[in-house]
Amino acid sequence: MNGPHDLGGRAGFGPIAPEPDEPLFHAAWEPRALAVTLASGALGHWTLDESRHARESLPPAGYLSWSYYQIWISALENLLIRHGEVTREELSLGHVLQPGQRPQNRLTADKVPGVMAKGGPVDRPATAPVRFAKGDRVSTRNLQPDTHTRLPAYAREKTGVIAAVRGVHVFPDTNAHGQGEQPQWLYTVAFDGQTLWGADAAPGLTVSIDAWEPYLEPA
Amino acid sequence: MHDHDHDHGDNSLDPMTARVKALETILTEKGLVDPAALDAIIESVQTKIGPRNGAKVVARAWSDPDFAARLAEDATSAVAELGYSGRQGEHLQAVFNTQDTHNLVVCTLCSCYPWTVLGLPPVWYKSPPYRARAVRDPRGVLAEFGVTLPESTQIRVWDSTAELRYLVVPERPEGTEGLDEAALAELVTRDAMIGCGLAKVPA
Q1: Is B112 annotated in the active site?
Q2: Are residues A113 and A144 in the same domain?
Q3: ipTM above 0.85, yes or no
Q4: What digits encode the pLDDT tens for the residues A127-160?
Q5: For an interface test with A, which of B4, B20, B137 has the most A Cβ atoms less than 10 Å from its Cβ?
Q6: Best interface-test mutation with B: which of A210, A212, A213 has the largest number of B CBs within 10 A?
Q7: What CATH superfamily is the domain B51-194?
Q8: How far apart are CA A129 and CA A202, in angstroms?
Q9: Same domain membership, residue A148 and residue A108
Q10: Active site residue: B44, B77, B110, B127, which one?
Q11: Which parts of chain A register pLDDT below 70?
Q12: Is-catalytic flag, B196?
């Protein structure tokens, strides 16, 4: 989707402003926000891709001005409401009006080390032959769905070279919307700086994205 | 910055504190979240992951050419040799700086970052200025981190648009021939492993 999250190449956001000796968290609620987001994910209602889509679907002015964990909490509230675990009224009142749907899936403390150490690999067995090889020239399609995609706007309808074939990975464009994993071949595609940014591009610049096969066509 | 005009139940708290507390309370009362599990998650991100993990990986790669070769071939497995694996590190790729090429990592679409070796990303990595500019003006970005590269250096930017996570292996500084892995790891900064910095030169 053409949302506020798709930031590559946009102007006007100012300096990077790295913070010397930055603490891991900037307020006591931030680690709680991180943890409650991960623990809620363990209920199994949504995928990582759906949670990303929930964040990029927030109001653009909010997305661009809120702190990172404020974005996480705003998206988490929406996900919990969408999947029937909480209501807007409960969030307003600050107390429970109806029972939860999946208490049987609650992540308990003893399971946390295993869950964090295991992660969630997204590589899958191939179900179709690979279409492109390293060195092939490919073009990205002009994909502008209203739904989730991981093809950034700056790399649409551009011609580049396959830099690596990464195997078959879960396809976020479907997995974000309850349409299943539909795994696809994944490639690293490298673009010359001038292809992306025109004649003013930094000299010697190459930018790559990781692109699923449905984003690509032969050039 | 708060966008709600309703009461979260505790007016003595700042809005985000009250909002997160209300959500945690509701989910806990519904039996959906275990507060002890939240504590365990927080402890995990504070103690198990962080840039010291990545620094040990880089120091090993500088010291052991066989390990460096395995790291280049399959970083997920090579990093697991040091005991680092898990969430947001399921699929790793190490990219090596050379005299001719400097690597820089960004996630323009969100905040993808190799948690297992670098920990949680700093605020600037997740914020619009870096995400907007890293792919377009990497030399300008590097200058803000105090890094100026020769005009002839190729700049290779990796936008983490899938679940592949990138770790930059900076160049080993000159004058470090006599150092062991532990001393070398002290030279490897988080920013150097994102590509926004260079390894420190020993004092």
Answers
A1: yes
A2: no
A3: yes
A4: 999 999 999 999 999 999 999 999 999 999 999 9
A5: B20
A6: A210
A7: Nitrile hydratase alpha /Thiocyanate hydrolase gamma (3.90.330.10)
A8: 37
A9: no
A10: B110
A11: none
A12: no
Known active-site residue B111: yes
Question: Searching chain A, which residue's CA lies closest to the CA of residue B127?
Answer: A68
Rounded to 5°, the CA angle B118-B121-B123 comes to: 150
Instruction: Please provide the DSSP assignment of A75-99 as one string.
Output: HHHHHHHHTTSS-HHHHHHTS-SS-
Report the residue of chain B nearest A110, measured CA to CA: B37
| Residue range(s) defining the domain that contains residue A187 | 137-218
pLDDT digits (tens, 9 = 90+) for B123-172: 999 999 999 999 999 999 999 999 999 999 999 999 999 999 999 999 99
User: Within a domain: residue A4?
Assistant: no
Mean pLDDT for chain B overall: 94
Whole-model pTM: value is: 0.96
Judge if A41 and A70 occupy the same domain: yes
Nearest residue, CB atoms, B22 vs list A91, A115, A196 = A91
Of B7, B136, B145, the CB nearest to A18: B145
**In chain B, what are the domain boundaries?**
15-47, 51-194
- For B19, list phi and psi in degrees, rounded to 5: -70, -45
Quick one: CA dihedral A94, A99, A103, A109, positive or negative?
A: positive
Q: How many domains does chain A have?
A: 2
Do A60 and A92 belong together in one domain? yes
Considering B112, B127, B152, B196, which one is annotated as catalytic? B112
With tokens 């907007």, the residue in question is: B132
Sheet holding A159-169, edge to edge: A216-218, A137-140, A159-169, A184-192, A205-212, B154-159, B101-106
